[in-house]
From TrEMBL:
Residues 4-149 form the PTS EIIA type-2 domain. It is an enzyme of class 2 (transferase). InterPro entries: Bacterial_PTS_Sugar_Transport (IPR050864), PTrfase/Anion_transptr (IPR016152), PTS_EIIA_type-2_dom (IPR002178), PTS_EIIB-like_sf (IPR036095), PTS_EIIB_2 (IPR013011), PTS_EIIB_2/3 (IPR003501), PTS_EIIC (IPR003352), PTS_EIIC_2 (IPR013014). GO terms for molecular function: carbohydrate:proton symporter activity; kinase activity; protein-N(PI)-phosphohistidine-fructose phosphotransferase system transporter activity; protein-phosphocysteine-sugar phosphotransferase activity. It catalyses: D-fructose(out) + N(pros)-phospho-L-histidyl-[protein] = D-fructose 1-phosphate(in) + L-histidyl-[protein]. It is a multi-pass membrane protein. Residues 281-627 form the PTS EIIC type-2 domain. One of its GO terms (cellular component) is cytoplasm. Keywords: Cell membrane, Kinase, Membrane, Phosphoprotein, Phosphotransferase system, Sugar transport, Transferase, Transmembrane, Transmembrane helix, Transport. SUPFAM superfamilies: Phoshotransferase/anion transport protein (SSF55804), PTS system IIB component-like (SSF52794). This is protein-N(pi)-phosphohistidine--D-fructose phosphotransferase.
Amino acid sequence: MITQLINEKLICLDLKATTKDEVFRELTEILNSQGKLKDPEQFLKDVYAREQIGNTGFENGIAMPHAKSSAITEPAVVVGISRRGIDYDAEDGELSKLFFMIASPDDSSDHHIQVLAELSSKLIEDGFIDALFNAKTNSEALTLLLAEKKSVTTTSVNKGFLIGVTGCPTGIAHTYLAAESLEKAAAEMGYSIKVETNGSIGVRNAPTKEEIEQATAILVCCDKQVDMARFNGKKVIQTGVKAPINNAKQVIEQGLQAPIFTADSKETRQQANQKSNRSNFYRYLMNGVSHMIPFVVTGGLMIALSLALGGEPTPQGMQIPEGSLWNHVLNVGVVAFTLMIPILAGYIAYAIGDRAALAPGFIGGWIANNGSFYGASAGTGFIGAIIAGLLVGYFVRFIVQQNYHKMVAPLVPIMIAPILGSVFIATLFIFVIGAPIADLMQWLNAMLTEMSTGNVILLGIVLGGMAGFDMGGPVNKVAFLFSVGMIANGQTQFMGAMAAAIPVAPLGMFLATVMGRKLNLFEESEIEAGKASGAMGLVGISEGAIPFAAQDPLSVIPANVIGSMVAAVLAFSFGITNSVAHGGPIVALLGAMNKPVLALLCMIAGAVVTAIVCIALKKVRQAKMVTA
């Protein structure tokens, strides 16, 4: 069967390519010359689109670029060897020398997947890679590829039964290579194993309920969502699909030591970790965002409800009578809002450095969001939390990966790494990052004060842009506090512009999720968060847009800034004023703004602009990922 996909003419023992792009093109030309493609350029685009999902470079100099494409006439595998090596951005940082480009038609049958499984089993054989690399002729190389699989040396004692689950976003190369690696490692360690593959042809070899009950541990090595509820009550480890390819024995050892899995408490984390259709960096952000969303939604809706039903407009802002039921609701919501930024930082750090990074991540997020630590009137908000989470995560991961004496090693994840991580991030924010932030806030305030007597259109652009930039962060806070200060001077038009700009980001994200739902631009978690964001926008809580900005800052932040600018400029142009220190439609409806109808129109216009710009930027970025 393998001869249907690989032949001597699909092997090149000396690639001329010197870059990753040239490798793709040279291998594609070989496929095309053998009549395997009907549209080489489209196939290349599909290969690049797959590469954007995740790098296909492995350790030991192997790379397996692949794609399912309508441009393929029949399935094929082209093999190429680079004698000098190519910088492929492989995980181990080494040059890639052995390339298998797998071409799979969209409507192909299952046989090419079976061939891929055979190929995967060959790649993990001891000495196979060196032998193939040293082949002198195409015929010799093909003989190696077609040779019978070597038997794996096993121990005489069966230590237990394991279940593996493998899957990558496209379900081609990584899925089956990971499965083979688990099977080989388990046999060598004395365990029997059954591996479920979540490939392009669907789920194969799924374990039965009885087998799951029998299993000593479950090894879920997937970059796509799988049914986790069935593993409730078992030892479960969750990794990316490349983990067993790189070190299957380590994955098995970690699985045997893993805690008991409880489906309900792990569901949110599972969904976040399995959406690896982008880079590791994206998944780290998503881990933080997915844990932050419940805090944003809970806190935001409780604050929104208390303000809407119990709030009264006063010069000091929307006030709720002390001791009232709605005041208690507000206080609980404030607790959730206070925790959401440390949660974001903590779980970003956790995604990178595991449990040892969780505590210093929380601490770093708290310090980042509390300007009193470094002499600023406001913290760094979600942007600071992301920075803190990333820095802590990588720092702690570096610490725990060092070699320690066996007497010290047990203390590293529970004491040494958390303490060092906390000291590191606290020192960094208090003595290095903090001072520039405080200086920046003072400069921004001075700039606004100087501009307050100038052109209102320019001021609207600056004030609105600051309002939409970081949604409750330091830049937003400077603009807000400046506008509040101007109320005391009898100049309420600044707060009028600010009040119109404040709800634009959350309302815009709500509209964007509604308008972009059919365009496949937003994930289900974002669509659900969009509903809560809309409710928060109605009562002037700009933090409702933070999950969107944290997940995709390059699309969301510019959209928020532009939309908020539009709302603020319109508000200044219409002469809208606001006498209370708050914003959003609720302020206009409660009579604190002099022209409530026009104020609402300004907010709507800004939100619509934000939604349109956000969708446009997402589509542009999506298109670039496909054509890159």
